[in-house]
Each structure stands twice: as structure tokens, then as C-alpha cells.
Amino acid sequence: MNLIQQPPFMLRWAYPGAVWRLDKISKTVYLTFDDGPIPDVTPWVLEVLKQENVKATFFCVGENVENHLDIYNAILKDGHRVGNHSFHHIRGRKFKLNDYLEDVQKSADFISSNLFRPPYGSLTIGQYKALKKNYKIIFWDVLTEDYNQEKTPEDCLNNVKKFTRNGSVIVFHDSIKAAERLRNFLSAAIQHLKQQGYAFGLID
Ligand SMILES: [Zn+2]
Q1: Global pTM?
Q2: Which of 107, 158, 172, 201 could form a disulfide with 87 if both were Cys (CB 3.0 to 4.6 A apart)?
């Protein structure tokens, strides 16, 4: 098992009740896109998903939603799901509980959702317990590493091929950092998953 692309059992165990992977019986996967919406990448992602007839969940940064409300609305109009990814894309472990909760709440003014994903996967147990009262906390089962400058699109595609299994929640990024890699492997990743017989679910 790889510590980066697929989080280990002990880490999952530290946040009881959080979602890493969904139904292991059903041949369904859950595509998620973090850090948007932004004009350079998100509309292109929506176009690919439309062409492939696939729905996904977008964990949006509140600040980006405030600045690009039209793109946020396009996500919803296309039938995708949205989740809260904080307002300023902050690292939980660097913030006091109340400051962190305040940032998440500010984001909730723009993003109506019961789903929350902590940026960088960074969340103290106290923050986790507080947020769990109002949110389903969604981590992931597979990281494509599309944000990593040292990876090629082929590496990202291989992460999808190697680590995806029934119920996998897979992370992509509609961000500037990931854009070049994403453009070169997203369609191939979706087509690979289709060939493997996976259906594409929405996290509820
Ligand atoms: Zn993020």
C-alpha cells in the first residue's frame, strides 16, 4: 500500500465516521474535484464530464465561489454535487479551532452543502469533532497527484489505474497547479474506469 496515493488504515481510523471510501460491494467510483471554481480550468472540466456523461462532486473554495459565481452555478446546473473546502483554503493544523470554524462558516455562506473536505487533509481531532456535527467529512481513497509538479500525466493516470477499487473516492484538482496534467489525463482516466465497468456515483 502506498502512503501517498492511498491513505493507510491508521490514518483512516483516526477520524471515526469520516468517509474515505464508499460501498465496497458496488462497482461504483466517486470523482471529486478540489480547489475551484476558476475560469482557466473548471469550465473545461465541466465540458469533459458532459462529453463523458459523468457526474462528480466539486469541493469548492469559498473565495473562488465568491469571485466566480457563474462557474459555481454552472457546476450545479450540470447536475454535479458541491462541497465546502473552506473559504481561504487553509491548513487546519495551523489554525485555532474557532478561527478554522469561522473560515468554514464563511465558505458556507457561498456553498450550500452538508459535505466538507479539509484542504491538504489537515484537520485536528477537535476541528473534526466540531465539523462532524454539521458536515459529512469526506477524505479520499485515491489521490491522482495531479497537483504534483514532479509527476507526469502518465503517472497520474497510473495512480488511477493502480489504486482505484469499488467505492473509491478519487481526488482531482480544478486548479492552476494541476491544469496541465489534468488536461492530459482526465479523459483517459474516465475512459479507463468505464472500460473496467465502473459506474460514477455522487456522494450524498
Ligand atoms: Zn484543496
Answers
A1: 0.95
A2: 107
- Cell 489505474 belongs to 161
Q: How far is the CA of 173 from the centre of ligand 1 (A)?
A: 7
- Could you say which of 68, 80, 85, 173 is catalytic? 173
Give me 186's grid cell: 482526465
**pLDDT single digits (tens) 131-167:** 999 999 999 999 999 999 999 999 999 999 999 999 9
Residue 85 C-alpha to ligand 1 middle, in angstroms?
7
CATH homologous superfamily for the domain 9-82+139-200: Glycoside hydrolase/deacetylase (3.20.20.370)
Query: What are the tens digits of pLDDT across the range 87-99?
Result: 999 999 999 999 9
Q: Annotated catalytic residue: which of 34, 103, 146, 174?
A: 34
- Please indicate whether residue 34 is annotated as part of the active site: yes
| Domain boundaries along the sequence of the chain | 9-82+139-200
CA 145 to ligand 1 centroid distance, Å: 12
